[in-house]
Amino acid sequence: MTILLLFGCIALLIVLISYARLHTFISFLLVSILAALLLGLPATRIAPAIEKGIGDILGGLLILITFGAMFGKIIAESGAAQRIAEVMMRLFGEKNMQWAMVCIGFVIGIPLFYGIGFVLMVPLIFTVVYRYKLPAVYIGLPMLAALSVTHGFLPPHPSPAALVVQFNADMGLTLIYGFALAIPAIILAGPIFSRLLKNMPSEPLATFTAKSLPPEALPGTFNSFFTALLPVLLLLFVTGVNMLFGHHPALMTGLSFLGAPSVVLLIAFGYALVTLGLARHTRMDTLMQYCVEALKDVTPILLIIAGSGALKEILTATGVDKEIANLLQGLPVDPLLLGWLMAALIRACVGSATVAGLTTASMVIPLMEHSGTNPNLMVLAIGAGSLAFSHVNDAGFWMFKEYFNLTVKNTFLSWSVMESLVALIGLIGVLIMNYFLT
Q1: Which of 56, 79, 395, 429 is deepest in the core (most CB within 10 A)?
Q2: Rounded to 10 degrees, what is the CA torsion of 239, 357, 144, 197?
Q3: What is the number of domains present in the chain?
């Protein structure tokens, strides 16, 4: 009965978000309160549990997400993203334009949140399409596949970063495993799949051609690449040193501080503020305005994460987490596959990869504790599942349709299939890695 009540609450959450169009944060709070009442939590404990859940999850993520957003905004506004794109285009040339788009999407997708990356990079796609007279979907889909993969697989993006915190996974190892999965997923769902769509009719609007900065206003090539990739480089450096010299306690004491994800992003943000801002004579008040705009963009994401933390704490306080663990342990299904499937189903119903990932996390944490599943791989399995089955309830579906001026049918055949391919390839990769790591 308890499990049926839980799934009923999850179904209500989906209805409130998808059909009632209630804000996700409000939906999470209402469902959390209802779940607490139905599951027998005393009324005096409901509000403290919700507050504790919100505080616990945001405590480890607030710095990560806010500084990640501000860092990405400075990368974009300074022209570093444009410089990276121009260099990659020169390196690859017209014949290898798809691969150039993949690399640009991957490099830009690491520091930028998905929505920001989409809006910034689509004009570049259309500029290339008009300049070289190439098919829009054929050129654009590989870049968007790369953006999607970084959003679902790689910290410090919201969902994988939140999952790392909730599962007590290792941020550096998750990033390394994520890179290993990202490469085949991007190649197969991007350049290779889009070759089947070369003749798909698409007339993107000229309004969306890129408004670029003049060359003299752009930062240098090394500065642009190094600053954009600095968070990844720092995390990989600390993880590598830990693997090689982990037996030196004195060394690891210092690196444990420098390798904390929030500290890494704080360092990267400060570096970008100086090298892409102050050193190039951008006023501090202008830079802070960029940061304010970035924070406005991520406030809805923080609220979604806060709401998921409230539901998670209610499930813990009522003991449902242990019941779920006991039930799932009896199923003849690999926990990684189960996590992927749950995330995929919630994604199909809700439309948000972030909501799908975080809702799934609250249900599989007890299973993680009892099954001994690799937490780094579970982050990636849920991240992959949260990208599956994008359709009409996903904002990305409509952005792709409208920007590329496609029919609904062709949006399904291109965008929806690409997202599902990324999810399936990610799952296969996770299961293969788990076989060799266990």
Answers
A1: 429
A2: 130
A3: 1
Domain hosting 178: range is 2-437
How far, in Å, CA of 136 to CA of 139, rounded?
5
Q: What six digits make up the tokens of 88?
A: 């990659």
- Using CA atoms, how far apart are residues 405 and 402, in angstroms rounded to an integer? 5
- Please write down the HEC assignment for all residues of the chain: CHHHHHHHHHHHHHHHHHCCCCCHHHHHHHHHHHHHHHCCCCHHHHHHHHHHHHHHHHHCCHHHHHHHHHHHHHHHHCCHHHHHHHHHHHHHCCCCHHHHHHHHHHHHHCCCCHHHHHHHHHHHHHHHHHHHCCCHHHHHHHHHHHHHHHHHHCCCCHHHHHHHHHHCCCHHHHHHHHHHHHHHHHHHHHHHHHHHHCCCCCCCCHHHCCCCCCHHHCCCHHHHHHHHHHHHHHHHHHHHHHHHHCCCHHHHHHHHHHCCHHHHHHHHHHHHHHHHHHHHCCCHHHHHHHHHHHHHHHHHHHHHHHHHHHHHHHHHHCCHHHHHHHHHHCCCCCHHHHHHHHHHHHHHHHCCHHHHHHHHHHHHHHHHHHHCCCHHHHHHHHHHHCCCCCCCCCHHHHHHHHHHCCCHHHHHHHHHHHHHHHHHHHHHHHHHHHHHHC
Q: What is the pLDDT along the chain (438 residues), one digit of tens a residue?
A: 677 887 788 788 878 877 888 888 898 899 999 989 998 899 999 999 999 989 987 886 788 778 878 887 888 888 887 888 788 778 887 788 889 889 888 887 876 667 667 766 776 787 678 767 889 999 999 999 999 998 888 876 778 888 898 898 988 899 999 999 999 999 999 999 999 999 998 877 555 554 578 888 899 999 988 998 888 788 778 777 776 766 666 666 767 777 777 888 889 899 999 999 999 999 999 999 999 988 887 788 788 878 888 887 887 788 776 676 566 656 678 889 989 988 888 887 766 787 788 888 877 887 777 777 899 999 999 999 999 988 866 777 877 887 788 888 898 999 999 999 999 999 999 999 999 987
